[in-house]
């Protein structure tokens, strides 16, 4: 059952194209200052996290994405891959650095002009100019287009006036704002010559060099959160704050001295989504960060599960190791499989990100596909991380609840990943709308009902091919290609067919259900859309699941070493069959899976999990972390040491003359002796 | 759709028999000292929590369970019901008080003799003698029988010697140990005259009155955990600590001056489980506490969901309220239904607890049923609470992550409930074994494989009737009574039939699968058992789900008011159909549900959730909490205030002459004007 594997070779496959950057990130994560200590108070933790951000700046990695003219290499995935790994230091560091280099720096890079780059970009990416990214408001999170902050141009002074017109327009949850940021990229409604041109980004100084808050600006500290203690989130209110016209980041919308507005993108909706689209990096990196956190949790829980014993099952002395229990295998092995699938899917996402942002293929279509995937993957993966970390924490029992074993901290920090940089529920709807638009042209510009509005015109011109909906466009009955002849439930073709068909049927079913909306009043259309929202979201999850499965399937095919290939096949089947088991009701209801085949799922998964467990240590070794990354007492071998000591004690005790015999054993012996005596008595009687 | 309801009447139904005690608990929870502040340091939080425990002592409630001779009323559920409600103050308080009065005091009450009661019990229940409950060790949590601490009787000195023979035998995670406890009930292997009589409880002083740790005892602080900051957990090591023979809590096992051991229960296994069984109170109260935490989270999230708006869906101005979105309804309404089901099931559990401990029916059978239910309910409910609180936190977006809105704190505190007082996975196996034992006598004493050993002989003599397995004992084919004639998927008979059949088929299926184990070697039997462990655990969950559904169904029948009855029917159907949807694959695979019927589930649930949402406020009002219990900024109405202010601002703006017209609107108008001009031009041309 156990395969003979080389964890380093698996690690090479997992680390992929950006292996070097990942290893750089892991090295940085060894620096003690980057490690959170629950005993530290808020300000100490924030100061340490800032020191970590400065260390990241010192590596030069945040500069890599810049154009060569500014000292960069126009490489976009490198620093993301590297930063993701700093989650092993602390998620606070990953998030605070993400705000500084990805959001603040990234907005200047992608939305600013060359002069603005000269003015602020290098300072931002070297950590000399600390910044915030002030988009979200108390009143509007997911619906960015509806934010209330205004930036009104005054011709007389050649200035914009940034203002918070009511409390709901207060910038909220803004990272770096409570303590460190000297400037912020502020998103506001650009108003000039009596017209509101929609949301644009502005560079707004908020503190002087000494850290004193500038006039007209008030900042409140968000204080304690569910986690991310090292990130200083805050609320910002602007009261008629004046900035030079120069400070409008004007790549997609400029204002001249007379207040005349121009934009390279004519449609206001399209312009807005193009601007937001340049900030996709945040979602890409959260997808990766959630994978790193999941790996770390599994690394800890598997090591403990391989040492910890509980209950004697076979004899009276030897206890059974946790990971030999079927249920323990079922808790951790599917989690490992889905982390592997997510990691290979993330690698593809990074490739696509690099392609778009390096300019290798920045077609509208490719960009939209990247945005769709980033949204959908981020949603699925961050939820996966919460489930995986929680499973790991519970699998470690009470020890899992101790801060020193890190699982609870990871869980608390990752919690917010499900709702920041786009609420997962909203993100899935974005992806769902794209799927519908690919399916049938009339849906491409659908703008009815709730969150569909969120994605506006962005998903307009794409082909069916890119989302992989090969069968889309056919009627439901057409896609029912018979696959039931497949002999084994583990067949990859069967898995793919089931996952694909489910998605296709959902898409075409929803298209049918929603088509009448095109001719309805806005209110009726919204109602119709809303009455299908749950299915709509489920459809997007079906899409991510298929994409992740395909990524793992491809990775399997790439493994030349036959033993490693076999391991990957086990992983792929575990991931695939877990998905099919999760949705088995659907597959049965739609007649895709015969009942007898469906009943094999549970047993097949049991066997697969047992097989994977035999290589559990290889599977987590392959993540590439050491004790200094895990920093969890229970994964250092102490448990085995203590057990050996206890076993020695008992062995020694039993050899002593004064060993206290268990009453149970004594009674057994007494019973036996009594029986023997009776037997003797009967014998003696008979013999008489 | 909206029903006209009286929340107070629903509250009366929910609060049930111990309504007065619940309200007492809620009143106590208003005391400010009992509220945790995330800004407080560890020691301040601990001190405040202790002050809360003292306030609880002052209410006199912990005395109520005592016999009248000691000033009590021999009422056992009263203080549990009351304490559960203190979760609204802080889960730390509920847990620390639970350790003091339920575990420490409870062990003295249930395991001690009258003289011991005189010596310690009143002091414990009035909070004058602070204590710990030292059962778990680093090496053994779930498997209590295997703990390593020894208590060896020395005739010469008439004393027991308490000793920690190796590191794994260190008492671990012991509440009250790090700071406050002056004594501990210590569980240890009782050794006298060269025989080990198994685990017994001993009263061991650990600190003097000033708080100085006594000689021979070392205590280490567990420090930071995932939550429960107010509970001072610690590790205790005993180095040959001597206590008088008197300190053995000897109700189930006594030692005379000569070291002779006697017990009213002959079988060592049965004796052990009887001792542990008296401590069932912990699990009962965690079941209730998890329900209170879930109610509180829903109370906060529903109020916010009824105010918070996001995205315009119907027109360009009015945004849609979160709880009008189908997905939001699907996130929160099934959660409410399952909290209602759990609450009514808990009420039955409390009744059974009162029956057993007051002596009204302390039959072996009734006691075993209580233990089974307490174990199974606690597992299911604590997991439910984690899911519900997390759903609530995410449903509140970023605001849900702020400590000031309490959801993250509740989630962090409740996390450990899934693995303390019995790991949920182990507890479900305990229940599962009972189900098998009820099904067929030969399983009653099954003692193979992993955790089955844990429950030993305890579930021996019970009838089929008590677990409600009316059809058990029949072959699988027999239980397939046709129910498919039922017209509506919402039929209560259909729901019950599906839930019951699933359980019955699982039980008989597992009985068949495991029967060969009876004749196997220990190793083979353990293997066979292990290869069915996952199903075994699923079976126990099917049992709890059915029990909770039945409790809610009964509660529905008890509602005389027709409108309230209708509400309860909606709740019951939502709970029932959610369960059926969750396991729809099973119902289809086993031919219990036709595909067409199964396909109705999703839509029926959508409609039910929409209906329940119309009364969402009534449903949470009925929990009986006020702003001072919720203590969450987002549930106080601030969100609506801010929105009103924003709406006023926009209304006023639009009325102004210098209103900045949105570019979008302008372009629409321009297009229209252009068209009109062209039309005019055409007309003019034509007219020419």
Automatic annotation (TrEMBL), chains A, B:
It is found in: Peroxisome. Residues 132-241 form the Acyl-CoA oxidase/dehydrogenase middle domain. One of its GO terms (biological process) is fatty acid beta-oxidation using acyl-CoA oxidase. Residues 277-436 form the Acyl-CoA oxidase C-alpha1 domain. Residues 664-688 have a biased composition (Basic and acidic residues). Residues 23-127 form the Acyl-CoA dehydrogenase/oxidase N-terminal domain. The lineage of its organism: Bacteria, Bacillati, Actinomycetota, Actinomycetes, Micrococcales. Residues 501-628 form the Acyl-CoA oxidase C-terminal domain. GO terms for molecular function: acyl-CoA oxidase activity; FAD binding; fatty acid binding. This is acyl-CoA oxidase. Keywords: FAD, Fatty acid metabolism, Flavoprotein, Lipid metabolism, Oxidoreductase, Peroxisome. Coiled coil: none annotated.
